[in-house]
Amino acid sequence: GVCVVGSINVDEIVVVPRHPLPGETLLATSSTVAPGGKGANQAVAAARLGARVGMIGAVGDDGRARTALSLLAGAGVDLTDVVPVDGPTGIARITVDDVGENTIIVVPGANARVDDALVAARSASIARAAVVVLQGEIPVDASACAARLATGRVLLNLAPVIGVPGDLLQAADPLVVNEHEARLLLADVAGRTDPDADDGRIAVLLQEQGARSVVLTLGARGALCVDDDGVTTIASPRVDAVDTSGAGDAFVGALAMRLADGDELRTAVRFAVRVGAFAVGSAGTQPSYPWAGDELPSAAA
Ligand code: ADP
């Protein structure tokens, strides 16, 4: 199965006619509250597609915890290793204006309490997973610890980009990043800013930093993967995009599910771009993810 070690949040989304200035009060035109956090999103995506998924993480002792876990439970994710801690559940306060520009404030809350001790105490869950999925929204020591305990494949989605120790990057098979994250990461770990580098070159440069394989997601254009067999570009199906939020997490969840089933990387990526494309076709993050029986958009020609 799949073990996701990562963040669990509640997304509090408000829509405003324009962003407020410092000191200003504005009325929102609408607001929604929904479960989120990259770890939770990816766990929901993999479980809905039929993977056996366990989640390691933490929620607070507030009313938000229930909201945060609602769709994880609905997808059948094993929540035995989700630890209740004192204080608030993680919150992402997302403000969206008329033209779709957003600002986001994240309160890590319980996610900041996911440390190496919490992870090490759940070593059995990590060791029995075929794929361990990690992101950048919990303390990096916890992710590094999970990577050391893994006996299966480690999928490292470095979103957001955080500083990682060399052994964590070297465990990544694959490292998954979007284009924006890829450029940030190259600047961070390799001290390179190469504005003219094309996508394939960027992915190869990232692999040279130590990752065993690299997947670069390219939005509507699809994705590109680099492993020992070289560079493969995979187009995304064309769809009418309604809401692209959480597409990357749908992609990662689908990729983890297929890798756990034993697919080769490029085969798994061919499936994951279709799941990402499905997710942009409807509103919301977790609610937009497909179930095993849903018809996915066909692969691009
Ligand atoms: P992120 O959400 O992290 O920014 P991307 O934007 O690269 O990640 O999207 C992840 C995947 O979702 C892509 O590889 C692609 O399969 C799919 N996707 C995203 N946006 C679109 C789109 N406009 N049309 C079709 N597929 C999309």
UniProtKB/TrEMBL annotation:
Annotated control of activity: Activated by a monovalent cation that binds near, but not in, the active site. The most likely occupant of the site in vivo is potassium. Ion binding induces a conformational change that may alter substrate affinity.
Domain Carbohydrate kinase PfkB positions: 2-291
InterPro entries the record matches: Carboh/pur_kinase_PfkB_CS, PfkB_dom, Ribo/fructo_kinase, Ribokinase, Ribokinase-like
Active site: 249
Note accompanying the cofactor annotation: Requires a divalent cation, most likely magnesium in vivo, as an electrophilic catalyst to aid phosphoryl group transfer. It is the chelate of the metal and the nucleotide that is the actual substrate.
Annotated positions binding substrate: 9-11, 37-41, 137, 249
Cofactors: Mg(2+)
Role: Catalyzes the phosphorylation of ribose at O-5 in a reaction requiring ATP and magnesium. The resulting D-ribose-5-phosphate can then be used either for sythesis of nucleotides, histidine, and tryptophan, or as a component of the pentose phosphate pathway.
Protein name: Ribokinase
